[in-house]
Amino acid sequence: MIVIFATTNNRKLEDLNDIIANENLDLQVLSLSDIGWNRGEIEETGRTIQENSVLKAYAVLDFCRANNIDYPIITDDAGLFVDALCGEPGIFTGRYADLDLMQNPELPKHYSIIKLLNKLVGEDNRTAEYRCAVTIMFSTGEHLQFTERTEGWISETINEPIKKPYFYSLFVEGKTGKPFNQLSREELNSTYRFKALNKALRYLGKRYQKNSTL
Asked: Is residue 77 flagged as an active site residue?
């Protein structure tokens, strides 16, 4: 069964293919590049990660219908939610410091994590969680969603190495006590995003297997 994963990010594609291999699913993944996507970045205007995930799915569905492409579509949206900051950065996780960097190009590219640490100076409550919403959209417009979360806290200092996603240098996973950027591949496989994608892919695998036996 062929599915479209709404991304051009190679790391995300590798993650999805790893899950497919680990679960031994009969699925083949196409990226937006593979289907000839030419509409640029999809605008995220939703108020929640759930809404943004669905908005992305509808945008790709519209493109597929216009180009006679008929495969299930998978979209995801995720964010870091810090309790003491009323859920910041939340849906703005990926662009938390965009305005700051635009106004001052001399700031480091990872300024988003510096900004978050500055907002938490003197704050005792550092609990936070990562959330992910994964949407499966079918050509009929039927869709369903899977959500997962990982609880933890924000460290008081930046943990090396500093690389994208930058907030992984700050978020400490509750069960292991390790920052996300220091988790092993196996440990990451049991966190929010992998769990949500895993649920979605297993659902598709079972649905495809059921339909193929009818």
From this structure: yes
